[in-house]
Structure formats: C-alpha cells, structure tokens
Write a structure and sequence with these properties.
This protein is an all-alpha fold. It has two helices and no strands. The chain has two domains: 31 residues; 57 residues. The chain is rod-shaped and about 100 Å long.
C-alpha cells in the first residue's frame, strides 16, 4: 500500500510538469517565438536574482561582524598577555609562598 501511495504521489507532480511544458511549447510559437521565451525567462529569474543579492549582502555583513568581533577578542587577549608578561618580569617586592621570611 505504501509503495502505491509513493508511486501516486510521485506521479502527479511529474504529470503536472509535463502538462505545463506541453502547454508552454504550444503557446511560445504563437506568442512571439524565441524572443518571447527569453523575455519570460528573464522576468521569471529577476526575483531570484534579487533574492541572491540580498543573501550575498547578508553574508557580507555577517562575515564583517564576525571579523570585527574576532579582532576585538584578539586585541583583548594580546593586552592580557602583555600584562601577564609584565607581571612575570617585574621584580618581586614581597617574598613568595616558597620563600622564607627572615
């Protein structure tokens, strides 16, 4: 039963696609031929081109934000490292835990 349902579900989208293609192939020569088809394709592709442009802009903004955050983190880490190195190199005024107090 499941196999029949899968075959029927797969049949109707394919049948619809074939119907649309057959209808368009009959209408294109009457509507102006190849120029009409090219114009229709251009008009149909325009929303996808705009959507792609928006995705590219969003990706650019996200990557730019990520780069700025990474630069800030690197700067903070560099500053902490320099402070730690200064503390390690500084002379000690008080005895450490392992040193005896006279």
């Amino acid at each position: 039963m499941l196999i029949v349902a899968a075959l029927v579900a797969g049949f109707w989208p394919g049948a619809f696609s074939a119907y649309v293609q057959a209808t368009l192939s009959r209408m294109v020569p009457q509507a102006g031929g190849l120029e009409a088809l090219q114009g229709m394709i251009t008009i149909a592709a325009l929303p996808f081109a705009l959507l792609t442009l928006l995705v590219v802009l969003g990706l650019y903004r996200a990557l730019d934000l990520q780069q700025r955050l990474q630069a800030r983190r690197s700067q903070k880490l560099r500053q902490r490292m320099l402070e730690w190195m200064e503390r390690e190199d500084a002379p000690r005024n008080s005895p450490g835990p392992d040193e005896a107090v006279p």
